[in-house]
């Protein structure tokens, strides 16, 4: 075997193959690589654990909503959603300070939010009721409800119609308030019979105000300012200078009646005369007229006078009698309540609120029984002579009449040919 080369004999086990001057820097680089690798592995192993334990949406509240159906209550809806009874009771108590929960109706909405979808961790609750009103309740502090009214814009509307059918049909064809058909029939009943006196082709003009919500829907009740019915032989006009006050009826420009309907927007459910009694049965004399309306609907005095009775009468239930002088008394019966300032001896004006519709006494459902007595004898309230003339039209009424005539293009017979 030959001898090894001299260069091979100089290498020893563990000796560095690199020049002596390069050994420290190479070793440091190698160690840094090892540490970097361990660091990358550690970060990579921790990152997935953080993502699973704390996703970005883990604590965001979840929103829910429900629409009130017939037979539903706030408690039943929230109970079906799994909200505990204690929370439901606390929410109902807070909400009732702002809104009567018995007024919830089909179509109203309930919205609420719960942290992480946990029904026991409510963060807010809102009722969306009539006219876009929101009753809001928050749970991030002491429970307190807040009523939030939407912004409304008052708009004026004017319509001139030609009656080829019923007034109701003419109003609906122009998207005018249908309730005006009832209101005008009641107020003008002493001057015109809408079933017999209208032959077709009559001109009817209306001016009213309504409150419009941001979505274009109408809030509250429309307010009639002026109406004109041009018959073949005369012209009837109605002027209301106050939204809830009395109205003046003019015939051919002369004030003939100052009064208020006892109730607005209600259906005439029974007229004066003999009828089958809805509770007692048999044919009996009905001494007034009835207006069907929900409990709580405002009832107004039809004329100025003095309250001579405010209490309960068998059969009539809760009742108010007003003496208008000249032997004329009006009666308002089956009320649910009497206004706080109405008592025996109180003076009232036409249009003053005196009570609210109810179902007291012998009735089959909520309604107002309105009766007129002359010298103690019941007469038909639609008789134009039932209530004596009490006041003439004021200067404001006459100015309003001239304004609305001008704005609706009417020329009186004394100024020239009617148009």
From TrEMBL:
Residues 1-13 have a biased composition (Polar residues). SUPFAM superfamilies: Duplicated hybrid motif. CDD domains: M23_peptidase. Residues 1-23 are annotated as: Disordered. Residues 284-381 form the M23ase beta-sheet core domain. Keywords: Hydrolase, Metal-binding, Metalloprotease, Plasmid, Protease, Zinc. GO terms for biological process: proteolysis. One of its GO terms (molecular function) is metal ion binding. Coiled coil: none annotated. It comes from the Bacteria. InterPro entries: Cell_wall_metabolism_enzyme, Dup_hybrid_motif, M23ase_b-sheet_dom. Its cofactor is Zn(2+). The keyword Metal-binding applies. PANTHER family: CELL DIVISION PROTEIN YTFB, PEPTIDASE-RELATED. This is M23 family peptidase.
